[in-house]
């Protein structure tokens, strides 16, 4: 069941306090429906005063203490009876900062025209009244003053005396710290991944540059090897050809032109020796240059025959 008692939409920011208001409204409805068995006559109405106090204190602290809601939303809560405007007005006055309910300060409600015992500071009570509670609200002590909050921090001594606004603000702060920490870790993780990626890219670039530098060297080495191989083959062939040409020149001499003597120096020497031998034979004397007798060498005409 929705808490809002109007068809008009609430001001912005209501969604922040709606879960708590709704939970307290449901709690109050359940407490009203509970049985009064084994309870004192006044004790059955304690949850009503206590939940009304807690809900009003929650809205008051969210606006005045923690500045978590706007003035427009605060006035909307007062107008819609989500908070007790009379009780909040008393909290703004000195001495009533921790007042549990407006009922306990009304002299008409008590004998002798006094207030409830919960308005008496604990240090001023007698020994038998230290743990006394107000019979209407169940308050242990809502008197303001120095040290009173330390003596009785929870004026009801149960879950309805807790400061829900402070709990919610602390939870929101803790959640924001966790989110900020997670965001910082995420950014650090992204930076680390980017740095690793940059290192990998730099390594790839270095490898690519090394490969580009190695390719021209390998190509030049290959070309040099081919050139050396070609020169060696050519030099061998040239040397072989030179040797063959030298042998041919020694044996046969250069190729002669037509009508020109085709003999080499060796053949010329041999022909001259033969011519001299023929002359010696014509004279009919002696030996040749080799110590052989001329008579043994046949005459040219005889050889021709």
Q: How does this model look, in words?
A:
This protein is mostly helical and 305 residues long. Among the domains are: 14-162, no CATH class; 175-210. It is 56% helix and 0% strand. It contains eight helices and no strands. The longest helix is centred in the C-terminal third of the chain and has 88 residues, at 164-251.
Reconstruct the topology from this structure.
Layout: H1 14-33, H2 46-65, H3 71-79, H4 85-91, H5 148-151, H6 164-251, H7 265-283, H8 300-304
DSSP E strands, number: 0
Backbone shape: rod-shaped
Largest sheet: none
In percent, how helical is the residue content? Answer: 55-70%
Order of secondary-structure elements: HHHHHHHH
Residue share in β-strands: under 5%
What would you report as the Rg, rounded to the nearest angstrom?
A: 65 Å
> Structural class, judged by helices and strands?
mainly alpha
List unreliable stretches of 5+ residues.
Answer: 248-252, 256-263, 284-296, 298-305
Mean pLDDT: 79
Tell me the span between the first and last alpha carbons: 158 Å
Tally of DSSP helical segments? 8
List keywords for this structure.
single chain
Question: What is the compact description of this entry?
Answer:
The protein has 305 residues and is mostly helical. It contains eight helices and no strands. Helix 1 packs antiparallel against helix 2.
């Amino acid at each position: 069941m929705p808490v809002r008692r109007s068809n008009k939409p609430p001001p912005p920011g209501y969604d922040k306090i709606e879960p708590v208001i709704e939970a307290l409204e449901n709690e109050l409805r359940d407490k009203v429906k509970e049985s009064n068995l084994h309870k004192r006559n006044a004790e059955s109405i304690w949850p009503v005063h206590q939940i009304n106090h807690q809900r009003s204190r929650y809205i008051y602290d969210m606006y005045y203490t923690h500045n978590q809601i706007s003035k427009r939303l605060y006035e909307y809560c007062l107008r819609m009876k989500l908070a007790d405007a009379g009780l909040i007005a008393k909290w703004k006055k000195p001495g009533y900062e921790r007042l549990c309910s407006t009922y306990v300060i009304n002299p008409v409600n008590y004998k002798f025209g006094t207030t409830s015992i919960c308005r008496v500071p604990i240090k001023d009570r007698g020994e038998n009244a230290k743990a006394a509670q107000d019979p209407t609200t169940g308050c242990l002590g809502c008197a303001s003053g120095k040290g009173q909050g330390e003596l009785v921090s929870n004026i009801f001594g149960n879950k309805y005396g807790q400061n829900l606004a402070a709990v919610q603000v602390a939870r929101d702060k803790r959640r924001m710290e966790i989110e900020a920490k997670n965001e910082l870790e995420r950014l650090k993780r992204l930076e680390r991944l980017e740095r690793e990626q940059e290192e990998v890219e730099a390594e790839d670039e270095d490898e690519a540059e090394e490969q580009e530098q190695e390719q021209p060297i390998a190509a030049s080495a290959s070309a040099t090897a081919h050139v050396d191989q070609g020169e060696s083959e050519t030099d061998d062939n040239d040397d072989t050809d030179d040797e063959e040409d030298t042998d041919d020149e020694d044996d046969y001499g250069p190729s002669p032109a037509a009508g020109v003597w085709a003999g080499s120096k060796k053949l010329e020497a041999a022909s001259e020796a033969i011519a001299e031998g023929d002359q010696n034979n014509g004279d009919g004397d002696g030996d040749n240059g080799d110590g052989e007798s001329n008579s043994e060498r046949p005459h040219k005409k005889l050889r021709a025959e």
